[in-house]
Amino acid sequence: MTLAEFMLCVAAVCCSSASQLCVKGASKRVHTLLGILLLGAGGSLMFVSMLIAVWVLRTLQLSQLVPFAAGAYILVPLGGVVFFGEKVNKSFWLGVGVILLGVLLTLF
C-alpha cells in the first residue's frame, strides 16, 4: 500500500464519520435550515466517502480497505462526545481497543 492509498483510505473513513455526525446534528434540528444543510452535508460526505473507496479499490484489495472502516469506531464516538456531549463508558472504549488490536493484526 502506497502512502497515497493509505491517505485516501483515511480520507474515506473521515468523510464517512463526519457524515454520521452531520446526520446526528440534523436530527436535532429537523425543521430548520441548519438541519437541512447538515443533512445535505451528511449525504454529500457519505457520497464522497464512497467515491474515494471506489477509487482506492481500483488498486487495493477489498481486504486492505475494509480494516480502515474500523476507524469510525473511534471517530464517531469521539465526535459524539465533543459535539453532542454524549457519554461513552469505559467498557465501550475497551471494546474499541480490542477491535483496533484485531485491525492491526490484519494489517501487519
Question: What does this protein look like?
Answer:
The protein has 108 residues and is an all-alpha fold. The protein has one domain (3-107). Helix content is 79%, strand content 0%. The radius of gyration is 15 Å and the shape is flat. The model has no long low-confidence stretch (mean pLDDT 94). Keywords: Membrane, Transmembrane, Transmembrane helix. It comes from Achromobacter xylosoxidans (strain A8). InterPro entries: EmrE-like. This is Putative membrane protein 88.
Comma- or semicolon-separated keywords:
5 helices, 0% strand
Topology, element by element:
Elements: H1 3-27, H2 33-57, H3 62-65, H4 72-84, H5 90-107
Helix pairs in contact: 1-2, 1-4
Keywords: Membrane, Transmembrane, Transmembrane helix
Transmembrane segments: 34-58, 65-85, 91-107
Organism: Achromobacter xylosoxidans (strain A8)
Provide a count of the helices: 5
Q: Which outline best applies?
A: flat
β-sheet strand percentage: under 5%
Poorly predicted runs of 5 or more residues: none
Overall radius of gyration: 15 Å
Q: Span from first to last CA? A: 12 Å
Structural class: mainly alpha
> What is the string of helix and strand elements?
HHHHH
Main β-sheet, in a few words?
none
Calculate the mean pLDDT score and round it: 94
Instruction: Return the domain count.
Output: 1
Helix content: over 70%
Keywords: Membrane, Transmembrane, Transmembrane helix
Protein name: Putative membrane protein 88
Give a brief rundown of this model.
It comes from Achromobacter xylosoxidans (strain A8). The protein is mainly α and 108 residues long. It contains five helices and no strands.
